[in-house]
Design goal:
single chain, alpha/beta, about 130 residues, four-stranded mixed β-sheet, 2 helices, 2,3-Dihydroxybiphenyl 1,2-Dioxygenase, domain 1, about 15% helix
Length: about 130
């Protein structure tokens, strides 16, 4: 079977706009435990994090730039990025211990959602093994 030319085989990065870079750093680096990696000077503030073979890019929203409206509450139907996890209960309990609101299913279904300090929605999911 021939592979499509324009379809990627791997996610390189997901980007999130943030207003308060230090609060975002505390969340992504401190709460989620992601490793901050070098980011080239781009003329706009931000931070990059390693997530396995992929990356998370935080971009500070310049004043006056409209990046859309985030949902007013935790909503799994809103645009989000999902991160694979191995242990549902361990991740859920660690997030709650750090004061993060968690919208969960259950360990059998293996999905939960949180919001970062700017309201970006992240999903954590135990991948189904087929």
């Amino acid at each position: 079977m021939r592979r499509p030319i324009l379809i990627s085989q791997q996610l390189h990065h997901a980007s999130f706009t943030v207003c308060d870079l230090e609060a975002a750093r505390r969340f992504y680096g401190g709460v989620l435990g992601l490793e901050e990696i070098e980011r080239p000077a781009m003329g706009i503030d931000g931070a990059w994090y390693r997530v396995g073979d992929s990356q998370v890019h935080l971009i500070v929203t310049p004043a006056g730039v409209d990046v859309g409206t985030r949902p007013p509450q935790l909503n799994p139907l809103a645009c989000h990025t999902a991160f694979a996890i191995d242990d549902y209960v361990k991740v859920r309990d660690a997030l709650r211990a750090k004061g993060v609101e968690v919208l969960e299913t259950n360990p059998k279904v293996g999905q939960m959602w949180v919001r970062d300090p700017d309201g970006n929605i992240l999903e954590f999911i135990v991948p189904r093994r087929t």
